[in-house]
Design goal:
It contains 4 helices and 13 strands. With about 350 residues, it is α+β, with helices and mostly antiparallel strands. The protein folds into 2 domains: about 70 residues; about 170 residues, L,D-transpeptidase catalytic domain-like. Strand 7 and strand 8 form a beta hairpin.
C-alpha cells in the first residue's frame, strides 16, 4: 500500500510539472504576442507622429512664408505711409472742414479704355488739374478698372511673370506695376519687339507697359506715395494719346527700345530719311578741318602780304548731342529704389 501511494505522488508531481510548463509556455507566448503587437503599434504610432510632424512642419513653413510676405507687404505699406505722412499738409476750409493734401509733385491717371497715361501737377489752389505729360501704354486683363492707389517700391530691372524682365518698374498695387515693354533677359538689346508694336492696345497681363523714356520718367520723378488713378473713358485725356514707332520691320534695330537713352542704343545713329545708320562726326576730324582752314588762311596771308581778320568757325556744332527732356529730373531718389 505504501509503495502504491509513492507512485501516485510521482505522477502527481509530473502532472503538476507538466501543467506548470504549459502555463509558463502560454505566458511566454502571451508575452511574446504582447511585445510583437506593442512594437507594431508603436511603429504605427511613430509613423503617425512622424507624418503629423512633417505636415505640421510644412504648415509652419507655409505660415512662415505667408507671414514673411505679409510682413514685407506691411513694411512696404508702412514705408509708403511714412513717406506720405511726412508730407501731409492740412488746410481748413470755409465750412470748418479739414482738407488733407499730400505734397506729392504729381498725380497719375491711367485711362484703361484709351490705353493712355496722363500726369498732372498742382494748380494755384493745390489741386492736381494741370496736365504736363501724356504717355501711350498697354494695360491687361488684371489691370484695376477703377480706384486710387499709391506707388511704392521701384526697380531698375524687375523679373516679371512669364520669366521676362521690365526696365524701370514701379509698384502700384499687388503685382501691378508701371514698367517698360518686356525683355527676354536682363539686357537692353533683348526687347520683345513684337510686344513693343502693341503699345496703345490691350496687351499685358495686368501691368502698365510703357516706352522706356516714359517708364524712366515715372521712375525718376514720381516718389513713393504718388497716387495713381484708374478709369475708363473714350476721351484719352487733355493732352491726347501719343504714338509709338512700329519697329518690327527694322531687323537690325528692333531689339532695342527706340526711346532708350542708353548711349549704346543703335537707334541713335539711325538716319530715318536715308534708312541707314550714320556715324557721328568725330572730334579729331573737326580738329583736322580747322587745322586745314588755318593753313589755307596763313598761305593766303603770305601771298598777299595783307592782314586778314580770321573768323574762327566752331565746328563743334557739327557734333550732335543728346539732351534730356525738359520734364526729366537729373537726380534720382536712390533711397526708395530696391
Amino acid at each position: 500500500m505504501g509503495q502504491g501511494k509513492k507512485i501516485s505522488n510521482k505522477e502527481k508531481k509530473r502532472i503538476v510539472i507538466a501543467l506548470f510548463s504549459v502555463v509558463i509556455l502560454i505566458i511566454l507566448m502571451l508575452i511574446t504576442a504582447v511585445i510583437f503587437f506593442s512594437q507594431n503599434g508603436m511603429n504605427e504610432e511613430n509613423n503617425n507622429i512622424l507624418y503629423y510632424n512633417e505636415n505640421k512642419e510644412k504648415e509652419e513653413n507655409n505660415m512662415l512664408v505667408v507671414n514673411l510676405a505679409d510682413k514685407n507687404e506691411t513694411n512696404e505699406n508702412n514705408e509708403v505711409n511714412n513717406t506720405v505722412n511726412n508730407t501731409v499738409d492740412t488746410n481748413t476750409t470755409t465750412d470748418n472742414k479739414t482738407e488733407i493734401s499730400y505734397e506729392m509733385p504729381y498725380y497719375i491717371k491711367v485711362n484703361n479704355q484709351a490705353n493712355t497715361v496722363t500726369v498732372y501737377k498742382k494748380d494755384s489752389k493745390g489741386k492736381y488739374t494741370v496736365p504736363i505729360k501724356a504717355m501711350i501704354c498697354s494695360i491687361g486683363d488684371a489691370t484695376p478698372e477703377s480706384g486710387v492707389y499709391k506707388m511704392s517700391i521701384r526697380y531698375t530691372w524687375r523679373l516679371l511673370q512669364g520669366n521676362v524682365y521690365g526696365q524701370y518698374a514701379c509698384k502700384i498695387t499687388g503685382n501691378i506695376l508701371f514698367h517698360s515693354v518686356p525683355y527676354t533677359k536682363q539686357d537692353k538689346s533683348a526687347l520683345e519687339w513684337w510686344e513693343y508694336d502693341k503699345l496703345g492696345t490691350k496687351a499685358s497681363l495686368g501691368c502698365i507697359r510703357l516706352k522706356v523714356e516714359d517708364a524712366k520718367w515715372i521712375y525718376e520723378n514720381c516718389k513713393s506715395g504718388t497716387q495713381v488713378e484708374f478709369y475708363y473713358s473714350s476721351n484719352p485725356g487733355p493732352l491726347g494719346k501719343p504714338t509709338a514707332k512700329k519697329i518690327s520691320s527694322y531687323e537690325n534695330l528692333r531689339n532695342w527700345d527706340p526711346t532708350d537713352p542708353d548711349p549704346n542704343n543703335p537707334w541713335k545713329n539711325y538716319d530715318e530719311s536715308n534708312k541707314t545708320e550714320t556715324s557721328k562726326p568725330s572730334t579729331n576730324q573737326s580738329d583736322t578741318n580747322q587745322s586745314n582752314k588755318n593753313e589755307n588762311t596763313n598761305q593766303l596771308n603770305a601771298n598777299t602780304n595783307q592782314t586778314v581778320e580770321q573768323n574762327v568757325v566752331d565746328t563743334s556744332t557739327n557734333v550732335t548731342t543728346e539732351s534730356k527732356p525738359k520734364n526729366e529730373l537729373n537726380s534720382v531718389e536712390n533711397n526708395n529704389i530696391v
